[in-house]
Design goal:
416 residues; mainly alpha; Growth Hormone, Chain: A; 17 helices; globular
């Protein structure tokens, strides 16, 4: 009996599958490059315009195509060979990084104004939003194919850990490289990282459609995925909570302003602040790999999101780099708990032939909360001031949790 228990709770079970290891390594380098690009673009655009709302426009530029195409992308993923689709997206992302590299060259700086360069950046970020609509859900879709159901919880936790590790490295290294070697060379590093990730993903076996869904009309296929999410209350509740909490609590959007004008810690301090929440998330994700949550996951999810809101308010009011870093670190720990619970709910409740569509709905919620939240933060900062807007966001997050606690008893009582 003890041996069976040990096998069931082996924290390295998912890593025994070679395809899963290649997927995680590929995703690590890919996400690291993407997060470095996000860090760089936020700093670059604010440096060009000195306008907090411009940071919000970055998020809007990416979220419009990412959300608009999400449902259609899910249909395409389910009827397509997934490996080929993923590789195409990665190559296109490299092209976008190279386009940004061209914008950073002296020839552009001498011929275009700062606001014109910012406009070109927004256009390229719009293109990355299109790519993201298709590539984002594919990773989670492939996980459900290459590992058996009894390993999904462990695989989901390692997946979050890989994403968070890459995110931490991308944020921190992005800030360090911007300060050390400048924007152009940092974009070169980003291109090389995405290329390295593509090489690992190339090792995956083809992943054809699990059933012939292309016989259905596209809209009927899309509606089937939507109906599943809307009718699975635990999934809908977890996604909705995350949507509104992150939408209002996106303090990281204003980190360039805090680093440059409030805390005055420069590009390197910006990189550390930008990576603080992800450092916290990876700490808790690794902990949950060895000590998974056993009971009352619904209540834990609500408590975690409430604590996240309190951390955002603390960060807003802080004038100390160490306190600000600590608040963001703890917010990451709490957000990591939320991500693991949400990801496990999705994997365990989604039929294999619908993973592309359901993961795309999940991607739509995530993109809405992150990028629309980034835009909301930029607009709120313009109207209310930076500090007041972040305090407002944290307060609204707390109100969302209270409302969810009252209105969604199924989520509050959920266990898996």
């Amino acid at each position: 009996m003890n041996n069976t228990g040990l096998q069931q709770h082996d924290p390295f079970e998912a890593l025994k599958y070679s395809e899963y290891r290649n997927l995680m390594l590929g995703r690590f380098f890919y996400i690291m490059g993407l997060r470095m690009m996000g860090t760089l673009v936020g700093w670059w655009v604010y440096d060009l315009t000195n306008a907090p709302i411009a940071i919000g426009i970055i998020g809007l530029s990416e979220v419009i195509p990412a959300v608009s195409l999400a449902l259609y992308a899910g249909h395409i993923i389910d009827i397509s060979e997934k490996r080929k689709l993923l590789l195409r997206g990665a190559v296109m992302y490299i092209c976008c990084a190279l386009a940004l590299l061209f914008l950073s060259t002296p020839i552009i700086k001498t011929r275009c104004s700062n606001y014109q360069i910012a406009g070109f950046i927004f256009t390229i970020i719009f293109c990355t939003g299109i790519i993201r609509a298709f590539t984002g859900p594919i990773f989670s879709t492939i996980i459900g194919i290459i590992v058996p159901r009894n390993v999904l919880q462990n695989a989901t936790t390692w997946n979050q850990g890989s994403w968070l590790s890459a995110s931490v490295a991308g944020h921190v290294l992005g800030g360090i490289l911007i300060a050390g070697i400048g924007i152009s060379y940092t974009l070169t590093v980003i291109s090389l990282l995405v290329f390295a990730g593509t090489c690992f993903m190339f090792q995956l076996k083809p992943k054809p459609a699990l059933q012939v869904t292309n016989e259905k009309k596209t809209w009927e296929s899309v509606k089937e995925g939507l109906r599943f999410v809307l009718n699975t209350k635990e999934v809908l509740g977890a996604l909705t909570l995350d949507l509104f909490a992150v939408f209002f609590g996106g303090a990281v959007t204003m980190i360039p302003v805090y680093a440059k004008d409030i805390l005055k810690v420069g590009a390197e301090g910006f990189g550390w602040l930008n990576g603080a929440s992800d450092i916290g998330s990876i700490i808790i994700t690794l902990s949950l790999t060895f000590f998974p949550l056993r009971r009352k996951q619904g209540k834990v999810l609500l408590y975690a999101v409430a604590g996240f809101g309190i951390c955002i308010i603390t960060f807003a009011l802080s004038r100390s780099f160490l306190l600000s870093f600590a608040a963001l670190l703890l917010s990451g720990i709490l957000d990591g708990i939320s991500m693991v619970i949400r990801g496990t709910i999705l994997q365990l409740n989604t039929p294999s032939h619908m993973r592309g569509r359901v993961m795309s709905v999940n991607s739509m919620f995530i993109n809405s909360s992150n990028e629309l939240g980034q835009f909301e933060s930029g607009v709120a900062a313009k109207l209310m001031g930076v500090v007041s807007s972040v305090v407002f966001g944290g307060t609204m997050t707390l109100l969302v949790v209270i409302g969810t606690w009252i209105k969604a008893p199924k989520l509050r009582k959920m266990e898996y």
